[in-house]
Design goal:
Helix content is 50%, strand content 0%. It has four helices and no strands. The chain is elongated. It starts with a helix and ends in an 8-residue tail after the last helix. It is found in: Mitochondrion inner membrane. Complex I is composed of 45 different subunits. It is a peripheral membrane protein.
Length: 102
């Protein structure tokens, strides 16, 4: 067990020594990973055609759904019932005391 831990510590020290080694240009070595496309200050990779078409179809369906329901079920926005005329409300209904009460 102790030998395996010593081996791991040795590998760690070796990697740190390699990482801290200075190049002739004065820069430290960098570990370069090529797991994905590089997109620093440039546009990223273009999505696949299926993803772009799927996004357009989903967006078109969403707008159709919204506009269709705005046209056919506008009561959701305007309300189902007529708005009452405020001029017909009495002072008692509005909670205003009478003028002669002090």
């Amino acid at each position: 067990m102790l030998a395996s831990r010593a081996l791991l510590v040795g590998r760690l020290l070796q990697r740190s020594a390699v990482a801290n080694k200075v190049n002739p240009t004065g820069l430290r070595n960098q570990i370069v990973r090529h797991g994905h496309d590089w997109s620093y200050r440039v546009n990223g990779p273009k999505p696949e055609m299926l993803a772009r078409v799927g996004a357009q179809v989903a967006g078109g369906f969403m707008w159709w759904w919204v506009l269709w329901h705005l046209f056919h079920e506008y009561e959701h926005i305007t309300g189902e019932f007529d708005y009452p005329d405020p001029s017909s409300w009495t002072n008692a209904e509005l909670g205003i005391p009478a003028d002669d009460v002090e």
